[in-house]
C-alpha cells in the first residue's frame, strides 16, 4: 500500500505541474476572452435567475415527468462544490502554500467561471432524455459532440473512480475525524452511520437527490457564511493586514522559504479546483439534468456556483484561519480549521464546525454518488450495474474511516488530474458551440424574443441534440 501511494503521489505531482495547470489556466483565459467575460458582465442576471421561484409554462414544460428545475440542478452541483474542500481543503492549501494560496484560489475562480460556463452549456446542449429526468455530462458531449465514444468511456471511468470512489473517501475521512474529535466516537462507528444515511438517499434516485440538495444546501451555506462574517466583523481592525498578507504571500514577497511562490500557486490552483470543480467535468453532470429553455441559462447559474463556492465559502474559511494567526503552527486540514474556529468562538466554534462538516461532507457524498451513477449509466444500461454501484458507494464511504488525510488527498489529486485533462481537451474542441449559443441568447434578448433554444437553431448538429426537440420549448 505504501509503495502504491508513493507512485500515486509522483504521478499526480507530475501531471499537475506540467499538464493540468497549463490546460486550466490556458483554457480559462481562452474561454473568458471568447465569452467577452460573460461571468463578470452578467452577475446581476445570474442572481435574478437564481431567485426566480419557478419558470413559467411558456418557457419550459414538463415532458413525461422529466423535470428538475434549474435551481435544483444548481443545488446538486453546489452540494458537490461546497464540501470538505471549503474546510479541510482551504486549510491544507494555506498550511502548505501559505496565505498566498488564497489569492490564487480567487484568480482561478474568476477565470474558471468561464470554463464552468462552457462545460455546463455543452452538457445542456448534448443532454439525453431519461425516464425521470434529462441526463448528460462530459462523457455524453464527447460521444455526441466529438463522436468519440472511447473518449467518453475513458472519462466516465475516471469520473467513477474520482467522484464515485476517491472523493468519497476524502469526504468520509474528514467527517469521521471531525466527529471523532468532537464526540470521542470511534471513526468506524461514524463511518457505519454515515454509510446507512448515504444509502437511504442514493437508492431514491435523482429526484430524491435533487430535492434533498435544494433543501439542505442553502441552509448550510448561509449558516456558515453568517458565522464567518461575524468573526470578520469582530476582528475588523485586523482585516486590512490580513488582505495585505494574502497579496504579499501570493507573489513570494517577504517569504523566507525558497520556492514559496510556486507552492502558493500550485496549492491555490489544486485546492481551488477541488473546491469549485471548474473544468474538472463533474458539475456538468448536474447541469445537464435541468429542464430549461436555453442552455446558456444553466451555464450562467453554474458560473455563479463557482463564485459562491470559492469567492464566498472558501474565503470565509480562509479569513477565519488567517485571522486566528494559527496557520503556521504545524496543523493541517480540518484540524487547522477546527483550531481556528475554537480560537474565535471557544467550544461553540468546535461544535459549529462539526455540524458544518457533517452537512458539507454528507451533501457532497450524495452529489458525488450521482455523478458516478450518471457515468455508470453512460457505460452500460443494465440496471444491476447501478445497484452494484450504490452498494460499492456504501463500502467506500465505510472505508473512509480507515484512511489518513495524506492518503486520501493523494488519491483524489490523481483522479482530479486525469478527469481534468480529458475534459479540458473535449471542452476546448467543442467550445465554439457554447460561444455560438451565447450569441444566440444575446440576440434573442436584444430582439425582444423569448430566450428559447430549439435544435433547428443549430441545423448543422441537430441530429445530435436529442434533448432539444422543437416541441420541447
Description:
- There is one protein chain.
- By secondary structure, the protein is mainly α.
- It has helices at residues 2-34, 38-41, 43-50, 70-81, 88-97, 100-125, 138-144, 149-183, 187-202, 205-234, 239-250, 260-276, 284-287, 295-324, 333-345, 347-379, 383-399, 405-446; strands at 128-129, 134-135.
- A two-stranded antiparallel sheet has the order 1-2.
- α1 (2-34) crosses α6 (100-125), α4 (70-81) runs parallel beside α14 and α10 (205-234) packs antiparallel against α16.
- The longest helix is centred in the C-terminal third of the chain and has 42 residues, at 405-446.
Q: Which structural category do the helix and sheet elements fall into?
A: mainly alpha
**Amino- and carboxy-terminal Cα gap:** 53 Å
Query: β content, as a range?
Result: under 5%
State the shape: globular
Succession of helices and strands: HHHHHHEEHHHHHHHHHHHH
**Helical residue percent band:** over 70%
Main β-sheet, spatial strand arrangement:
1-2
The profile of the biggest β sheet is: 2 strands, antiparallel
Distinct helical segment count: 18
Q: Oligomeric form of this entry?
A: single chain
Amino acid at each position: 500500500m505504501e509503495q502504491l501511494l508513493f507512485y500515486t503521489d509522483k504521478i499526480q505531482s507530475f501531471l499537475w505541474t506540467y499538464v493540468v495547470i497549463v490546460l486550466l489556466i490556458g483554457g480559462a483565459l481562452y474561454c473568458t476572452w471568447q465569452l467577452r467575460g460573460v461571468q463578470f458582465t452578467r452577475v446581476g442576471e445570474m442572481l435574478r435567475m437564481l431567485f426566480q421561484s419557478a419558470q413559467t409554462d411558456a418557457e419550459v414544460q414538463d415532458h413525461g415527468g422529466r423535470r428538475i428545475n434549474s435551481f435544483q440542478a444548481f443545488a446538486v452541483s453546489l452540494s458537490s462544490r461546497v464540501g470538505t474542500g471549503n474546510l479541510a481543503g482551504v486549510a491544507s492549501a494555506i498550511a502548505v502554500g501559505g496565505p498566498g494560496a488564497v489569492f490564487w484560489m480567487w484568480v482561478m475562480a474568476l477565470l474558471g467561471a468561464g470554463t464552468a460556463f462552457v462545460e455546463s452549456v455543452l452538457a445542456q446542449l448534448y443532454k439525453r432524455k431519461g425516464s425521470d429526468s434529462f441526463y448528460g455530462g462530459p462523457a455524453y458531449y464527447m460521444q455526441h459532440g466529438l463522436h468519440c465514444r472511447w473518449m467518453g468511456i475513458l472519462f466516465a471511468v475516471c469520473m467513477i473512480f474520482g467522484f464515485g470512489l476517491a472523493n468519497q473517501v476524502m469526504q468520509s475521512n474528514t467527517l469521521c475525524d471531525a466527529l471523532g474529535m468532537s464526540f470521542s466516537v470511534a471513526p468506524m462507528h461514524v463511518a457505519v452511520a454515515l454509510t446507512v444515511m448515504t444509502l437511504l438517499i442514493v437508492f431514491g434516485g435523482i429526484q430524491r437527490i435533487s430535492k434533498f440538495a435544494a433543501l439542505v444546501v442553502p441552509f448550510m451555506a448561509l449558516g456558515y457564511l453568517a458565522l464567518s462574517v461575524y468573526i470578520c466583523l469582530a476582528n475588523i481592525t485586523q482585516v486590512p493586514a490580513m488582505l495585505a498578507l494574502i497579496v504579499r504571500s501570493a507573489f513570494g514577497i517577504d517569504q523566507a522559504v525558497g520556492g514559496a511562490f510556486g507552492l502558493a500557486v500550485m496549492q491555490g490552483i489544486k485546492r481551488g479546483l477541488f473546491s469549485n470543480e471548474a473544468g474538472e467535468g463533474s458539475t456538468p453532470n448536474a447541469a445537464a439534468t435541468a429542464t430549461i429553455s436555453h442552455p446558456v441559462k444553466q451555464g450562467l447559474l453554474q458560473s455563479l456556483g463557482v463564485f459562491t463556492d470559492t469567492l464566498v465559502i472558501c474565503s470565509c474559511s480562509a479569513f477565519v484561519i488567517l485571522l486566528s494567526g494559527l496557520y503556521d503552527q504545524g496543523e493541517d486540514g480540518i484540524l487547522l480549521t477546527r483550531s481556528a474556529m475554537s480560537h474565535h468562538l471557544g467550544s461553540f466554534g468546535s461544535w459549529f464546525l462539526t455540524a458544518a462538516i457533517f452537512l458539507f461532507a454528507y451533501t457532497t457524498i450524495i452529489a458525488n454518488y450521482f455523478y458516478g451513477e450518471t457515468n455508470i449509466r453512460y457505460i452500460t444500461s443494465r440496471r444491476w450495474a447501478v445497484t452494484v454501484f450504490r452498494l460499492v458507494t456504501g463500502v467506500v464511504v465505510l472505508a473512509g474511516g480507515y484512511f489518513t488525510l495524506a492518503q486520501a488527498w493523494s488519491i483524489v489529486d490523481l483522479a482530479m488530474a486525469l478527469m481534468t485533462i480529458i475534459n479540458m481537451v473535449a471542452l476546448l474542441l467543442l467550445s465554439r458551440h457554447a460561444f455560438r449559443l451565447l450569441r444566440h441568447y444575446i440576440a434573442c434578448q436584444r430582439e425582444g424574443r423569448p430566450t428559447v433554444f430549439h435544435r433547428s437553431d443549430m441545423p448543422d448538429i441537430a441530429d445530435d441534440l436529442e434533448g432539444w426537440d422543437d416541441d420541447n420549448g
